[in-house]
Amino acid sequence: MKETQKAPDRIDQEILANDALERARRLPPGPERNEALKLASLLRCSADSRGPVFAKRGRPRK
What we know:
This protein is mainly α. 58% of the residues lie in helices and 0% in strands.
């Protein structure tokens, strides 16, 4: 069976960015932490560039 890969949606990217930021904050100060923080920032920018998440039209409010 062939698996298809889908592009991660914005919510998945936000989760990845938050996880990367938490891992970076736990590292001791130094160059490794700086690089991890830069990566977390890039992931956050990537998630933000996908635009805001809107509810589907016609869907009843909960």
